[in-house]
Write a structure and sequence with these properties.
The protein is an alpha+beta fold. 47% of the residues lie in helices and 14% in strands. The protein has 6 helices and 10 strands, in the order αβββββαββββαααβα. Helix 1 runs antiparallel to helix 6 and helix 3 crosses helix 6. The two termini are 15 Å apart.
């Protein structure tokens, strides 16, 4: 009886996880459908410009910080899977390590991006004023005069994904270095166009993310029930 219940719960969770994957594919398609036409054709085309020409890309400190029960959150791979940095379950570190990790202009601020260079290779927007530090396998993207929300969408579009695929050909482990991040090219729209496109995508993507959140909560409830 217990084994049967365990199988039912596992199947339920697997089904919800597949539904989340479908939602992620839909979200990526929605973003790419909006970003790719912005490149356009002819004289009105938005140029593809390397990040290094319009932003500052700063690698994380290659320091393994000690974790602490209280202190400053660390943003690593897990915290940058969504469109915005999620510190809700982040590991924390001491003030000493926070200062070490933040040295050299590495302290993220609202409007910056955290780019994951390993495994998932994603970008997330910093939309909090809470102080935190970068952990491992991420870098900081600072771009004055740019709409950070637009840049997140652009870096998650097929325009950039195709560049990443070419970089990762033959790679057994998905990882890119900071020089590759700096060379990623995105459509450079005017600031007004960036803001308008980001707002449109916010409206289009919000229902997808809401549905994903429901599925994640259902999985969490079922995992607790199984325990």
């Amino acid at each position: 009886c217990l084994d049967q219940k365990e199988r039912e719960i596992a199947e339920y969770i697997a089904t919800k996880q597949r539904m989340i994957e479908v939602l992620e594919e839909r979200r990526d398609a929605t973003i790419s459908a909006a970003i790719r036409p912005s490149i356009g054709r002819g004289n009105s085309a938005a140029p593809l410009v390397a990040l290094r020409r319009m932003t500052e890309v700063i690698d994380c400190k290659h320091i393994t910080a000690d974790f602490a029960d209280a202190g400053y959150p660390l943003a690593s791979v897990r915290e940058v899977q969504r469109l915005t940095v999620d510190l809700s379950s982040a590991n924390k570190t001491s003030p000493k390590y926070f200062e070490l990790l933040s040295d050299g202009g590495r302290k993220p601020k609202r409007g910056d991006l955290i780019f994951c260079r390993n495994t998932s290779i994603n970008a997330s927007l910093v939309d909090t004023d809470e102080e935190f530090a970068m952990g491992q396998d991420v870098c900081l993207i600072k771009g004055d005069g740019l709409c950070g929300r637009y840049l997140v969408y652009a870096l998650r579009s097929t325009v950039v994904r195709e560049q990443l695929d070419r970089l990762l050909v033959g790679a057994t482990i998905k990882r890119i270095n900071v020089a590759d991040v700096r060379n990623l090219a995105v459509p450079l729209l005017s600031l007004g166009e960036q803001v308008r496109l980001a707002r449109r995508l916010d409206a289009d993507v919000a229902p997808i993310d809401s549905a994903r959140l429901v599925f994640e909560r259902e999985i969490a409830v079922m995992q607790e029930y199984r325990t």
